[in-house]
Protein 1
Amino acid sequence: MTSSLIGCRIERVEVNIAVAKVNKYASSESGDTVEAVERPNGGVSVVLADGQTSGRGAKAVSMMVTRKVIALLAEGVRDGAAARAASDALFTEKKGQVISTLNIASVDLHSGTIVLTRNNPAPVFVSRGEKPDCLGAESVPLGTSRDVRPVITEMEIVPGLMIVVYTDGLVHAGARRGQPMDACEVISSVLEEQDPGPQELADILLAHAVNLDSNRPADDISVVVMKVDHQTGDDVRRMSIRLPIVH
Amino acid sequence: MTSSLIGCRIERVEVNIAVAKVNKYASSESGDTVEAVERPNGGVSVVLADGQTSGRGAKAVSMMVTRKVIALLAEGVRDGAAARAASDALFTEKKGQVISTLNIASVDLHSGTIVLTRNNPAPVFVSRGEKPDCLGAESVPLGTSRDVRPVITEMEIVPGLMIVVYTDGLVHAGARRGQPMDACEVISSVLEEQDPGPQELADILLAHAVNLDSNRPADDISVVVMKVDHQTGDDVRRMSIRLPIVH
């Protein structure tokens, strides 16, 4: 009886996601695109693409990739299949001449897992409570050849889980001055010293990178942080967006 | 000379958008769907749909409408045309038997305006500094007939502008007890007394509505608040999402 009662205990958790994004210095368009979309069987996916080079051309590529992926996810297509479809579409359209990185971070309530899909040489940081991990298995961008496969990692939605996904702007920050940023290392040390919320962590990483580039980012930089916590407070779903505009 | 210099002055503003959303009491699926998508010519659109009835069927309808609209917006289709296309698609698929409300709130950096598209009897609240306004011109939901036209309102992106868009769950809150909520009235009085940020205002409205329904919302309720301010702080674009989960 006791164990079945325990088995029936409803556990409430919440996932908090934060995105922070800056453009390359003196560039009005970011080559990075980040979109979030609701999953038809429950949950949310965040899609992050970085088109080759920067400025207008790169933006068009990353938007095309992101648009393709969110349209497929919204129809219930699995993350890996959506990534492969976007790669084939890009390869077909650009004949292998233009590539784009892609990351999909999904809170999949159907499977009860977080699914990370990566076509990006830049690693993904994962921390399950105490143990930080830098998922850096080889992974190629979309559009490089036919039949590009993503690296997929699936994990339980458990309180304490923290995931950080980023574009190569974060990895290359400081490279111009010969001090490239070790993103995983920086995240680990921030988490050792502090207990930042997702937005705070994203902001700290972005500020660190921009600082390494002497306040003139050498590339577009995007950071996505996903954190699972015990639920505090109400059942309200929330989203907020801040959009700075230069008239 | 002076006037041309003034004309050249760069004005930095920021748009802050907040969404808050609760399900009908004891319903695990919300019939409301809210998505935000980047506009290909710059800016962001927030798309809010409320499918007829509640639960699974309504969710499928509002997701279908939202998916259609964000796919078209991402391709550069104008808001009004996207709304009409979604209406035709819904009418064709459901033969006029199922309807859905739709609101699109766009920050359009191409035209430098905010564009409000409405196929929803529920009004939209707009305040330009001192002057609150309740945009309530007659507007029919999507899918009711062929050639449904949205009501479109376009306005300059100027600091002090505040817009509140909501589904009928907010309007019908308290109706069960014979005390339906006058959303525009409540927003006006909150703004007279306080100077809430977008998330705070969305939360206040939701809490007020849930309270009128004795903490058991009679319908799904979604609120979108958009606020234009002078830019304070950095050039970082930010997004955050909170997703409560019942395991």
Protein 2
Amino acid sequence: MGTHQHPLDTLLELQVLDRIPRSGYSVRGVADPESVAEHSFHLVFLAWALAAEEAGLDRARVMELALLHDVAEVRFGDLPRSAAHYLPAGAKARAEAAAAAEILAPLGPRATDLHAEYAAQATPEARFVAACDKLQLLIKTRVYESWGCTGLDELWARPERFRDSEFGVVRRIFEELWRRRQRAADAPLPRP
Amino acid sequence: MGTHQHPLDTLLELQVLDRIPRSGYSVRGVADPESVAEHSFHLVFLAWALAAEEAGLDRARVMELALLHDVAEVRFGDLPRSAAHYLPAGAKARAEAAAAAEILAPLGPRATDLHAEYAAQATPEARFVAACDKLQLLIKTRVYESWGCTGLDELWARPERFRDSEFGVVRRIFEELWRRRQRAADAPLPRP
Amino acid sequence: MGTHQHPLDTLLELQVLDRIPRSGYSVRGVADPESVAEHSFHLVFLAWALAAEEAGLDRARVMELALLHDVAEVRFGDLPRSAAHYLPAGAKARAEAAAAAEILAPLGPRATDLHAEYAAQATPEARFVAACDKLQLLIKTRVYESWGCTGLDELWARPERFRDSEFGVVRRIFEELWRRRQRAADAPLPRP
Amino acid sequence: MGTHQHPLDTLLELQVLDRIPRSGYSVRGVADPESVAEHSFHLVFLAWALAAEEAGLDRARVMELALLHDVAEVRFGDLPRSAAHYLPAGAKARAEAAAAAEILAPLGPRATDLHAEYAAQATPEARFVAACDKLQLLIKTRVYESWGCTGLDELWARPERFRDSEFGVVRRIFEELWRRRQRAADAPLPRP
Amino acid sequence: MGTHQHPLDTLLELQVLDRIPRSGYSVRGVADPESVAEHSFHLVFLAWALAAEEAGLDRARVMELALLHDVAEVRFGDLPRSAAHYLPAGAKARAEAAAAAEILAPLGPRATDLHAEYAAQATPEARFVAACDKLQLLIKTRVYESWGCTGLDELWARPERFRDSEFGVVRRIFEELWRRRQRAADAPLPRP
Amino acid sequence: MGTHQHPLDTLLELQVLDRIPRSGYSVRGVADPESVAEHSFHLVFLAWALAAEEAGLDRARVMELALLHDVAEVRFGDLPRSAAHYLPAGAKARAEAAAAAEILAPLGPRATDLHAEYAAQATPEARFVAACDKLQLLIKTRVYESWGCTGLDELWARPERFRDSEFGVVRRIFEELWRRRQRAADAPLPRP
């Protein structure tokens, strides 16, 4: 593939994000799971919707960070979390940065800078999108559970990641999601 | 469904856009075609990438219009173009406006206003996103054709829609896409 | 598409009903849900099987009405019930009538007349097929529930539509279906 | 499974025909191929549409024969043609008759008689449906070819089965289908 | 198809085992169920892994028997268990033997002999692979159940087939599997 | 996940290889592409079949190496070739070794040793399986091309990898495959 020269190369290659399933769902048996493209749409939407309730965030840059955060997966696939664990520290991030730079080259330096800003997690906007990324995982998980998927408990394992969030709106949406999940669990079995 | 009260209702319902295939591809035999969520991701990306080359557009609003343009399809499905033809003039647009208003209610009036701005097609940003929407259809189509799908000629039928575009970057990207498609057609058959 | 001239045009176009999923199941998360073609097969079978137990129905015409009742969806898609709600009264029915007339033209006026008879719901045969259409939805739903799908409760919401049916056999089959669903719900959880 | 006692048993079991792909397409690489339920719908439609042009056929019985012709596949799967070749003469037909009798039992003897009438191929209606069954295979094949599938030549190998048909309408529709396929083959490559 | 002459014919034809779903899961509603190729991989692995714990088995031959045991299904499909019941005694086995001989011909007589050895079930290795074949069905079933599939109880109906096995390791692995399934069933509902 | 303690843990986890598509095909648009489990089955078969024609290979160990060569992908996914390019030299191999050791632990040291032997590529058997791994990719590719997939040319780019193979049977099978592909390319277009 190498480094793209024309914006159309970038656009054509990114279409393939449709065919990269989110591995966390695949290995837990969700049929026809979310693709990376679908996840990215929902993340842009989520980050855009919640940023309005969080003072001091640059909402436009939040959208851009969300839009670009997973583009490298078109060359990497969506590595399961277990995969990163076996790689040297930072190897995955460096690889994604290199791939993103080659993919996004024809769009000018701003695109690559945004990708790097997200990876560095040093700005409030980057941290906000990262928090939304984890939240989006649970929103989709809740939907799959409401459809009958049962192998997803593990994804709910660390609520403190949300409860300790620096962003109030992330804490609030998470609690509402958690509460609805509990309520469903306490209800008499809804299906015969 | 009715009118949502809580942002989480909106977020949960929109996940279902993953399960709504783009009908223009389904009825032409594309296997596992793009979902409305995937299309929306690619449209936001495309409009964001191209807006940088078009003077005088509010790039942030361009992204927002693209993000919201198809949310009503979660209640409507993705009607084939042939369907609109049989409905009274404006019926589809009015129905989508009503559905969008109910879906987006918990996000405040700005969300609904953006959906209406796109429908009205009166601002340059709205027209730009609409031009990108048509262009995205052909970019994905080109990808499907490169994979072996052959029933898609009809989608290329009206190049003048792009050649007469008010937006230079849309004209340029389209010509590059068209040129590559021709070049592939003129080449000796690539596959044995 | 327009109005077909040759029966083969009709036959070829209708093959595409295989690629139109029944939206009521798609948006509720059923994996690989019934297509409109599959639904139509089961409706013809159901209406044929039950008509034998209902005095005074023209069984051959019952089959024909069932066979044709959804052909317009090849141009319309399978609109979710929520969609019709946003359209002007009668708009969906008029659109389907126009589409059906164009699709069925090469088969002679009888085909279009049968489609219109179903839409008008004025003959006992037409009403019988409509009752079976709703019943078929629940039979398939029951099958999906037995496979582990859980988001389908809403589809069972109005049992009185069946209990008040003018057709005894529809009432009887529905009660048996309802009873089996209850029995399954009361049983200890069948799956570890 | 055994012999059913209640019509609802029959109806519930037949829903599973949705999950039985037509093996002739599967083994030739068609993605998401026609199910037996979809094939059966198209056969009922085809036989009904063409019977109107063939004097002396009982159109209602034609529909019934088509409706029932493949019900045994819910217990047998859709054996590839190559499979029958390895079984003792008549074994497949006898097995299907036994399975159909058990499945259809609650619908009364007429249903089983119709299945047997089709298997015996002694009446004009049974032979007409059998001819339509082969024709439907090629109509769907033509659709798949127009979508880009290329492994299906073998299915067109014996045109004389249609050209020698006792039914004029089968001969005519086949010739039109064959002519269109030739015309497409002679055209310059439609896709770049 | 007939009898192959070149090893590449065998290799190419067997790729199609990817497109033959295991019918026992299809008819019970598992979405995207195991293919015969996948089952065969897991059987080779299982038989290889367990053979190490069973004295006196030729482990290499165990692998070969497992590798070849289902190759005939590429011409036969994966007949549901209910299908064999309707065929004359031995007809399915004879058909598979004939098909396997034609498919495997270019690989020399040893391949066909191994297929025959498995069918005859006269050697400990052949019986061991057959026991593993049944065990693999339940291992996959347990995985599907953990994902939310609920229509699979029937597959657990005859534990004595494992408890009475002549192979200790089969008995032990089955008991562990059974125990885990019970434990999951006794637990409070894991999913809200 | 961590290190497994019981053989059943290993067996259950490996079932998930069914849900990991081979990324080289996914990103090139093959619908419903081969899973890692399917690939592994075909590799064991291929290596077993060809090893018989290559003097001096331990055929049983060839099968074992093929059986185990991709087990780590259940935790890693099937990284596209482009991914490895961005990682530090050896990082992928070390990660897979660590993952394989944890997955295979309950099967004793021999299993882990076999995985390491394949990775080291120092024995003829390990090199033979690696050559077959590449060959299997092209055999499946040829099948997909015969079905109509067209985006796969790149996979044929380096015939010298086969022509310079140390294994005569690999060279011979490759040449036959190449020859058939050429013959198909030279033929008049087979499909209308």
